[in-house]
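Form 12-C: Joint structure prediction
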Amino acid sequence: MAQLTLPAKTPKKTRGKADQANLAYVYLIPAFAVMAVITFYPLIYQIIVSFTNFETKHLLKGLTSPDLQFIGLKNYIDILTGGLPVQNFEFFRVLAFNLWWAVTNVLVHVPAGVLIAVLLNTQDLWFKRIYRAIYILPVIVPPLVVATVWRNIFDEQYGAMNQFLTSVTALFGAVDPVRIRWLAEYNPPIPFLLPGVPLPLAYYAMMIANFWLGWPFMTVVATGALQSIPKDLYEAAAIDGATGPQQFWNITVPMLRPAMVPAAIYGFTLSFNLFSFVYFLTGGGPARSTEILVTFAYDLVRNLRLFGAAAAFAVIVFFVAIVIFLITNRLTRATESYSEA
Amino acid sequence: MSATTSSNPLTRLLNANTSSEKGGRRLTLGRQLILQVLCLIIAAEVLFPIMYIVTLAFSSQTSRPSSLQLIPTELSLVAFQQVLDRPTANPVSFLELLRNSFFLSFGVGFAALLVAVTAAYAFSRFKFKGRAFLMVLVFVPLLMPAVGLSTPLYLLMNSIRLFDETGKLIFNLRDSLLGVGIAITAGALPFAVWNLKGYLDTIPKELEEAAMIDGASFNQVFVRIVLPLAAPQLAVTFFLGFMGHWQEFALSWLFLTKPEDYTLSMTLYNMTGQYAQNIPWNRFSAMAIIVALPVSIIYLALQKQIVGGLTAGGVKE
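Section 2 - Result
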């Protein structure tokens, strides 16, 4: 870092710091010129539109439409109080579901990923390489394709999941084929799980599909961290008479924490905004009960065409994203100092 | 252990200590068998959807499966042939869909890179007034989810229209691949700047300083030294973008209405969504495999650089 002052020391260079600064601005021009037009201007435009009642009929003339009204904070208030002309939409229910969705995913993926990494790390385990090659497959397949495949797997009549359950129940003498309405059944199977927010079967279907997609990444990270734990620690613990579970909780878990916390936060952010996956698998249904913020934001533009409300909603989503970033950033920093301690 | 100090978690996962460490207890046969059963169950879980879709894709049956089949009983390429021949009910060929997907993924990846590289260099190497502020300005859009800018981009591009002399609409930027490409670039550009800056920071400055002592100008240093050194990361950033935009769905599904502009992702969605009733599942499965292949192949080929590149500057996607 100290070398940054070096250009000033070079004898041949007579150009000063001002020249260097000017050149920096020249280098920045292309990116900022493009971003000004396609990123920053739309951001400002978004805020303006969020204060209007922009709808499909205003598309032709835009902000100059004679009947376009500036309605102040009405869009924001409507979103937060459920005043939008949209059925089954309550902002705080969607937000709660979204947070619950992201948190439960991480809570399932991280322990599973760690346990499987530990399993694969067992010495003298046969066929280790083959298992490792297989377990990496979900990381390689594009999530978009994963979601479409799982959507067909959860098909009520012909889906692989019901067929699988049919052949399992047949082992116990059942005759009727299983016909679980995975993506359509609204009534929550476990009503008390998240008070006030229904968790329909589709939520569990999403969890199953995203579990398939999510844990292998955690295994990749955990395996990397496991390799760096000195073997002596386990040897010393074994000599002192520590059992396998004791070694796991007192050596493996604390040593994995610095690697797993950032991975968990990455997984949280990813799940929180997992647009195509949710949109392809459930489309937010049934009755918007599996809607997350980004899919609802999309529905406002794409299908409901309430552009003003959509803009306001995107601004709110943006603030939610900033709050989440500030919290997760703090968590990462906290664990950084933990790992150094 | 020294052989497995690769910085890439994926290679480490695949090559991790397979035998002969010191210490610990040896596995008894009983424990070994229990662990083998566990491993096989996990392998079955991973392979379940993959084998399901492969079996369907290589089946010549157009009807939906009446019972669970996870092992191909035939190796028919009929479904692949039909998908390549006529992917949807729309009069659009597979090659057109492929061309559109490539146009978006390559075009956006290339444009973002071209525009981002000088800015990334400036952020990485120069000290100047307002640097921190400008960097925050680049970082803020990264916090926005991808669909967060869709409303204003839709409205702004929708207002750019060309009419012929009779007043007939001949071009609407919103309803064109170019428009979608620009919209995707709006999100891809900050990511490219941030990602490249993260990498340039790791390149030692000694070479550049030596060149400057020899009298090279900043521009010469940038073109002759920095760009060649950064070439691998430029490629990784490009392919990261490519893999992301290959799957891009939200903006193209929002903007595009003409079937000849459709991409492979949009077609795949059409094969699962509400219009999917008449589409044989063997064709859907073949399509899913075709869409997945380019990304999977690139990932396998470049996994080392990709994992490294993601951790160097990755914020989202």
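Section 3 - Comments
The mean pLDDT of chain B is 82. Residues 98-263+308-313 of chain B form a domain with the MetI-like fold fold (CATH 1.10.3720.10).
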